[in-house]
Amino acid sequence: MAEPLLELRNLRKAYGALVVTDNVSLSVTPGELHAVIGPNGAGKTTLIHQISGMLPSDTGSILFGGEDITSLPMPQRVRRGLARSFQITSILPGFSALENVALAVQARSGSSFRLFGKAAQEKNLNDPAMECLSQVGLAARAHVPAGLLSHGEKRQLELAIGLATEPKLLLLDEPLAGTGHEESLRVVETLRRLKGRLTIVLIEHDMEAVFALADRVSVLVYGRVLATDTPGRIRENPDVRAAYLGEEELV
Ligand SMILES: Nc1ncnc2c1ncn2[C@@H]1O[C@H](COP(=O)(O)OP(=O)(O)OP(=O)(O)O)[C@@H](O)[C@H]1O
Q1: 61 - beta bridge partners?
Q2: pLDDT(245) > 70
């Protein structure tokens, strides 16, 4: 098996007596789409926060490309190619889709926000921004103000903004949340296109999407990894099925 791009070793996060992630160890290989599923409150979002650097872990370590990044702040993790897709709340509604992505390209390039208002007029920002929009299937909507995009298109824009940091690994926290059927098919198609070209850790409640996209699935229950396996074997795993009773259907 290839060297893991991301390796979590015994990560833990507790709020007082509530242990939210408990001794989580998992490895993500280059090019893999690794889904993390689990019932509500299992600790999935907390785990993403720990990986991205938004939340410090109490104990355990995170290796990225073999380097221990456990104590690095988020911007330094992003610089190394570990990015999470930005949430819709960070999209600037009055700016076009292209400008939103161009600003992310500008942030990556490390230049200041001095040219904020003119950011999208810069060819060296525009071209890579347009490329990111094309990758998520939003090129035709480049000049539409982000606030006028549909919910699904905003989720695609989020992905494009994430891509603008040129990540090696993209952390996605529920990219299908709130999307309708058609929109969700579009986002799934986008993820399928990105898959393999970059490594993805995906948290998602939509089991149909997870089982269609993932190379491997880790199941988190009460903060612990119950199983990591191929989608087919996860679906048949009796412990996993038991954990999901009364929760989302495993398709
Ligand atoms: N800042 C916090 N302070 C206290 N408890 C928290 C905090 N953040 C999360 N929790 C608790 O940790 C648990 C796990 O939350 P988390 O959001 O990581 O779960 P999740 O698996 O992503 O859930 P969902 O699928 O519903 O989004 C929940 O019980 C939540 O209430």
Answers
A1: 9
A2: no
State whether the beta carbon of 43 lies less than 6 angstroms from ligand 1.
yes
Say whether both 75 and 114 belong to one domain.
no
| Structure confidence by residue, pLDDT tens digits, 11-42 | 999 999 999 999 999 999 999 999 999 998 99
- What CATH number is associated with residue 60? 3.40.50.300
H helices within the chain, ranges in order? Answer: 44-52, 74-79, 97-109, 123-135, 151-163, 181-194, 207-213, 231-236, 238-243
Ligand 1: atom nearest CA of 46 is 18
Residue 220: domain span: 1-81+168-251
38 lines ligand 1 (CB under 6 A): yes
Q: Are residues 218 and 180 in the same domain?
A: yes
Ligand 1 centroid–CA 40 distance in Å is 8
- Taking alpha carbons only, the member of 37, 9, 39, 34 closest to residue 23 is 9
Q: What is the ipTM of this complex?
A: 0.95
The residue whose C-alpha atom lies closest to atom 6 belonging to ligand 1 is 15
| C-alpha–C-alpha distance, residues 131 and 98, integer Å | 10
Read off the tokens for 120: 């999208």
Task: Give the whole-angstrom CA distance, residue 200 versus residue 152.
Answer: 19
Ligand 1 atom 8 nearest Cα: 46
Q: Which atom of ligand 1 is nearest to the CA of 16?
A: 4
Q: Is the CB of 40 under 6 A from ligand 1?
A: yes
- Give the integer Cα–Cα distance in Å for 200 and 58: 25
Cβ(1) to ligand 1 under 6 A? Answer: no
Report the predicted TM-score, pTM, of the whole model to 2 decimal places. 0.89
